[in-house]
Amino acid sequence: MITASKVGSILSFAIAFAGISPVFFWIEPFPRLIFVLGFLIGILQEKADRWRIKNLYFNLLLLPLFIWYLLQYSRNNPVQPVVSVLTIMLAARLCGEKNNRNLMQINLLALLCLASRSLFDLSPSFLFWLALLLLLIPVSLVVLTFYAQDNGIKFVRAELNRVILSAILITLVTIPGMVLLFPILPRTAIPMWTFLTPSSVNSTGLSDKVEPGTTSSSHTSSRLAFRAEVQKQEQPPYWRGTVFNRIENNNSWSRYVQTLPSETIVYSGNSMLQTIYPEPSSSRIIVAMDAAREISLPRIRTAPDLVYEYPRIPTKRMAYTARSFTDGVLSTRADIRSSFYLITPSNLSERTLQLAKYIQKNARTDRERLELTEQHFINGKYRYTTVGLPTGQDAIEQFLFESKQGHCEFFASSFAILLRAAGVPARLVGGYLGGEYNDIGGYYIVTEDKAHVWVEVYIKEKGWIRTDPSRFAINSEAVWNQQKKPDMILRFRLLIDSLDYHWNRTIVSYDFERQVEQIRFAGNKLQSLQGITKISWLVPLILLSATFAALTILNSRLHFLANSREKRLLRRFKKIIKKRFGETVEIDNKGFFEIASATGDPLVLEFCNIYAASFYKDRKLERYELERLEKLLGYISRGRK
């Protein structure tokens, strides 16, 4: 047998562990240490069952810490002080006295610690810890209910199993309600965890400048940039982000919008619909498959060169759909202002100018000049690399004529400079190339190391044509067409990523706008079902009836558990007597020994002797007595002598 207080204490440690684990590595080292010490001290006290520290002493000891963290609270630091105080309070309760009230406080503090995780991050692991707490806390509440009625109550194994089962049923019955309420409850425009804590996201791999020659090596990050739900493409897709239209004398490309020429894009061909889930970043650029005609985000800014931007840095997870035309050509309704896209640095080297003049002289049209420039890169034996890069003011010249190795910024920048110097309008485009396709979830995983730069060249009567000079590198196949073997580790990683993707899609990014879409969708469906037969309404009716039946069964089970084991044995005893002896034995308004005398059964007499010894002396039956009574009832029901 185990006492209810012991069960409650064990559950309190499990609940505290489940509540603090999701946020443990997000809090500062000192409160983290305090919690570990409090947890270990509490376990030692439970084992020794002595030298418990009074809560009053603990509160006085921790009061300076609370004041310290209160002083740390500010607009720029609103989260850490609050979470630190919650952690310290939880540690204090774990190693202090554990009465019914304190155990309830541990449950509440653990829930608050779990909720504080959303102030830092809301990953799928949050759901695991939440589910664990939703199983543990109802068990604790049921146990504490018994404990509040009788602080000396003890459970045998069978009774404890029933308590746990009933608590699990409580949780299971609430799940349909939670699922029903989630899509219809009101949503705020800004999530609480974003409103309370300043943005701390890293900048994206998509830069606002292209600066070849600044470093001798390029370091990339495998951090996730976005996921894109779209059918798998035959070739690695280009994800268009921004356009760099101005180059300085230091070979630095940037985006200039003050005098950006107006142009009208004419769309033709087949379109591709995709849903994109970007990771939080400090960039306002909206990325979509090259090139997007429309993006389903309110209040976005659209430039004539098809660069989409948020009006301000986004502060929450979101999702948007984009419709793109992926043939690599942006046709224009009229000619563009070519002079804007023909500006070149004033300090171009003589060798670069001579190469540009050669291209211009040996080709009659802009199309032929583009082809001649491409041919130069194909025959030039250029190599793609991220180390040993040319540096300095003449980095482009070094790349073109000496080292002949560099990354996409060198290829695209030198290619566009040659075209501009040869009289062909050109601009750089920044975005991403390719990505890993997750066949399990049906989407692309695009990481920061997929950030890429290519060129758009304007050809009269054709429009802007996408060309990627990096593809002309002699080792381009090895760089861009890396195929990973579908081993077990890769499949497992894609499965985990798929779970994370669906979590963000269905939970985190489910905002007010998607809620309105769901309501409209449901309204349209209801209008289309006006002529449906009454049989279709049986499904929700059956579900409602099943939920009501489950609640009724749960209520009866809780009522059953609310009675002591002794009372349940007595009710069972009377039921067996009535069933076996019928009307020959009248048990109403009769005492134990009168019933035993009327039956003349020695087993009934033994049962009455054991039960009466406890009942009339106002004491609880011992464990061995309860086990004997259980056996006697079995013998009596079977008529065994």
Q: What key attributes describe this structure?
A:
641 residues, seven-stranded antiparallel beta sheet
Commentary on this structure:
With 641 residues, this protein is of the alpha+beta class. It has three domains: 2-151, no CATH class; 209-482, no CATH class; 563-638, no CATH class. 49% of the residues lie in helices and 14% in strands. It is built from 20 helices and 23 strands. The strands form six sheets. The protein has a seven-stranded antiparallel beta sheet, covered by helices on one side. A six-stranded antiparallel beta sheet has the order 12-15-9-4-21-20. Strands 3-7-6 form a three-stranded antiparallel beta sheet, with no helix packed on it. Helix 11 (395-401) links the parallel strand 17 (383-384) and strand 18 (405-406). Helix 1 runs antiparallel to helix 6 (125-149), helix 2 (29-48) runs parallel beside helix 4 and helix 4 (80-94) runs antiparallel to helix 5 (100-116). The longest helix has 25 residues, at 125-149. Residues 188-204 have low confidence and may be disordered.
